[in-house]
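R.M. (postdoc): so does anyone remember the format we settled on? I'll just put the structure tokens first.
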């Protein structure tokens, strides 16, 4: 018997606006698609938050025993700043005098490195837009044949008004079509579109546009929304269980995905639409385009002007998990400091478990506590409530350690396995405090060098203090001088 047969998840479905019992199309199997990054710059912590929420969801589904096919794409072509402007990757390639695929490679490598640092599980399939041009051309032809797209000057546009005669454009975002027209009117006049709310399926490439492919309509490139429709259909079928992404993708991206899929296959593509909320910095959405962002590497190296110290990936992960995925989360130094305290308290309690002796009776109902952990996760993946439950266990472990409580050996096993499962397998935290001997030796050695450097500085031997700092940097050890002394981070 798989755990999912006893544990029933309810998901807040953006399509219906309701929290619904999750029932996969095929019992025991889950198909999940999440819009991946556009690889034209480094991912910031906001992007990471969204992907981390789905990593946690993926982890929980796996923990329950579902066979999950998790598809998260890489957008390596076609992401226009708006429908008539420039492609983000081509623009960056021209600015940096690089091949577009060099840009794609550079930032895909960066993305994977960040995911590795933050202990992400790899998705089952990570398809790219450029790897699915043929399928995108086929889908466009199908939409044209079904009378819902038209060719104009070598580009192909989706006919939103025509589609809306028989379907509901706005079914997900709840926008009425007139609002969509309002929002796109600025582009009117400079476009080949019949109507401003129409969106591009294929764009004829201007001479300076580098990424281009042959098609029946022109040498050009596919529109951004299309890749997700094509890749989700290819790998998960015409109808699948979960589609996710950040809230900001609901309109137009996901609305367009639904329209395209309906226009191709005459079916609603997704049963549960899930949207994660934004990570804010200084009260504003973290964003690449406005420059209001922190990069993950700036956080774990401590090299930034916003935070007082470096914060480890596991602490940052814990900080993210302390908020529900659908709430706005504000990043600040104080919030990270508080998370670090909580994170370390949890890890210290877990480390104590090895030292606890069992007794004849338990003074804490472990089975009931375990079910409360499941209840939290079953309630739309409520990680803050889960963490509150984990802290009930932390309190109990500390009482055990102080001999103010007792536990049977069977319950101790159950407590240990449950705490490990929720902390490491599901939340994906890392026990950085349970360092092995070598890590302790390394830290001790670096602390010694920090001390010697401080002494050199005090003796005004700046040549020596700089030498220590620079040689540590060349070994990948960053020092950061702060009010409370010098800290270090490894990269
Ligand atoms: P992009 O590479 O811009 O397409 O973004 C990748 C993912 O990150 C999308 O799902 C966005 O919704 C999400 N995202 C962008 N900014 C933020 C933010 N500040 N907080 C949370 N998620 C974000
Ligand atoms: Zn997408």
């Amino acid at each position: 018997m798989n755990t999912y047969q006893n544990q029933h998840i309810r998901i807040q479905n953006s399509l219906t606006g309701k929290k619904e019992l999750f029932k996969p199309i095929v019992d025991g199997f889950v198909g999940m698609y999440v819009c991946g990054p556009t690889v034209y710059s480094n991912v910031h912590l906001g992007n990471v938050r969204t992907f981390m929420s789905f990593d946690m969801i993926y982890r929980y589904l796996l923990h329950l025993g579902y066979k999950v096919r998790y598809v998260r794409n890489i957008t390596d072509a076609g992401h226009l700043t708006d429908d008539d402007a420039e492609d983000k990757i081509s623009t960056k390639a021209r600015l940096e005098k690089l091949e577009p695929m060099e840009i794609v490679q550079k930032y895909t490598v960066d993305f994977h490195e960040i995911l590795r640092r933050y202990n992400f599980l790899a998705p089952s399939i990570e398809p790219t837009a450029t790897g699915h041009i043929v399928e995108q051309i086929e889908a466009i032809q199908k939409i044209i044949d079904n009378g819902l797209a038209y060719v104009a000057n070598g580009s192909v546009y989706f006919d939103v008004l025509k589609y809306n005669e028989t379907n509901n454009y706005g079914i997900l975002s709840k926008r009425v079509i007139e609002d969509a027209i309002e929002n796109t009117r600025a582009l009117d006049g400079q476009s080949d579109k019949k109507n401003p709310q129409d969106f591009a399926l294929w764009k004829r490439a201007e001479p300076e546009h580098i990424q281009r492919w042959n098609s029946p309509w022109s040498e050009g490139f596919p529109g951004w929304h299309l890749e997700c429709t094509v890749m989700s259909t290819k790998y998960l079928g015409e109808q699948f269980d979960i589609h996710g992404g950040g809230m900001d993708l609901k309109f137009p991206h996901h609305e367009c995905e639904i329209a395209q899929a309906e226009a191709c296959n005459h079916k609603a593509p997704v049963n549960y639409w899930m949207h994660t909320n934004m990570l804010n910095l200084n009260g504003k959405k973290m964003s690449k385009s406005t420059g209001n962002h922190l990069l993950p590497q700036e956080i774990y190296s401590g090299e930034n002007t916003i935070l007082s110290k470096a914060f480890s990936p596991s602490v940052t992960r814990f900080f993210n998990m302390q908020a529900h995925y659908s709430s706005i989360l504000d990043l600040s130094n104080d919030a990270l400091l508080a998370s670090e305290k909580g994170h370390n308290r949890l890890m210290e309690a877990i480390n104590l478990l090895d030292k606890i002796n069992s007794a004849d009776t338990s003074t804490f109902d472990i089975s009931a506590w375990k079910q409360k952990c499941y209840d939290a996760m079953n309630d739309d993946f409520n990680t803050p409530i889960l963490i509150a439950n984990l802290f009930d266990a932390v309190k109990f472990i500390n009482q055990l350690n102080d001999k103010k409580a007792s536990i049977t050996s069977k319950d101790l096993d159950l407590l240990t396995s449950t705490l490990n499962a929720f902390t490491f397998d599901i939340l994906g935290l890392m026990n950085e405090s349970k360092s092995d001997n070598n890590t302790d030796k390394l830290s001790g050695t670096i602390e010694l060098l920090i001390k010697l450097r401080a002494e050199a500085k005090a003796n005004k031997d700046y040549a020596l203090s700089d030498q220590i700092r620079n040689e540590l940097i060349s070994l990948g050890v960053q020092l950061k001088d702060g009010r409370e002394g010098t800290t270090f981070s490894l990269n």
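R.M.: ...and that's the designed sequence above, right after the tokens. Also worth knowing: The first helix runs from residue 45 to 63. The chain has three domains: 3-276, 280-426, 432-490.
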